[in-house]
Amino acid sequence: MTMRIAHVIFSLQTGGAEHMLVDIINEQVSQAEVALFVLNNEVNPEIVGRLNSAVRCRTFGRREGSRNPVPVALFNAALLRGKFDVIHCHNLNMAALLLPSLRRKAMLTVHDTISTPENLTRYNRCFAISYAVRDSVQTHAFTHCRVIQNGVNFNEIAERRVIPLRTGNFRILQAGRLRHKKKGQHVSIEALRILNERGIHDVEIDFIGEGPSCSYLQKLAEELGVSSHVRFLGCKDRAYVYNNIQCYDLMVQPSVYEGFGLTIVEAMAAKVPVLASAIEGPMEVLDSGRYGFLFEKESAPDMADKIIHIMGIAPEAMRASVDKAYDYALERFSVKRTARDYLEEYRRKD
């Protein structure tokens, strides 16, 4: 008998988790009947357009934070009518809106470290995207939380074929929502200022993404005198990102906190070196620096030092390094493996 799976999420915007969810659904639909329910009215047509035509997607138009009970009632009624075997939730607080009869089928993926256990125990089963997130979850509630690591579709990411001797600027990319208190874009800008002070003027940084910190970061770049070396490219669709990671010399992720680090895996798949802050999620992805470079969290001087070190690595040595990182990531962080592991967990009897 074909398994019936409903993935439920508050919004479907351009974040890495949302894109990865679509990848997982597109893998699962070959083995199960899969639906996607989006409760709120924040839906990106580009992401919806990537869904396999066999996936039923329904939106309910609720405004974020609204107390209007009608969208929630319609949402629960649709889940009841669907007679799903699994209701896979991707937001911690979703269980509070589910009917008690539906919670018995509800499973949760926790995408980030958490500080409060609210609503955790309302789920039948819990998954974590990394061991760092699992430890956070188990501190609060679940004695067992299965780790199913995020994955990407390696076939969609263009690889950097050649690492030539550099003749132009050293190009750095940071991709992600512009929320500097989490993603740490301000550290990248401050590191660029330190490089300039040290007489290194051929480094430039592109930021891909939108968010509430955009104006702050633009002003910071101007105040530190590096605005001519910084570009804010805004929101780009995933096809653009996947085709253009290969054009950069380095991907950075200076996050202040991070449950995993999907952009790190995407860079590894593109055979571009990665520099990330030494915190739990990125360290796990990079195997404590074996497959990338790490710097002290929120330390712009250390980030600048590591950039200088990376710039000095010979092309042959860098090629060997990124090839090893690619092989490691392909084995551990393929979306096919992620989707398969979830299906196995759905079928598992407690």
UniProtKB/TrEMBL annotation:
SUPFAM superfamilies: UDP-Glycosyltransferase/glycogen phosphorylase (SSF53756). Keywords: Transferase. GO terms for molecular function: glycosyltransferase activity. Pfam families: Glyco_transf_4 (PF13439), Glycos_transf_1 (PF00534). Residues 15-154 form the Glycosyltransferase subfamily 4-like N-terminal domain. Residues 159-312 form the Glycosyl transferase family domain. InterPro entries: Glyco_trans_1, Glyco_trans_4-like_N. PANTHER family: GLYCOSYLTRANSFERASE (PTHR12526). This is Glycosyl transferase family 1. It comes from Chitinophaga cymbidii.
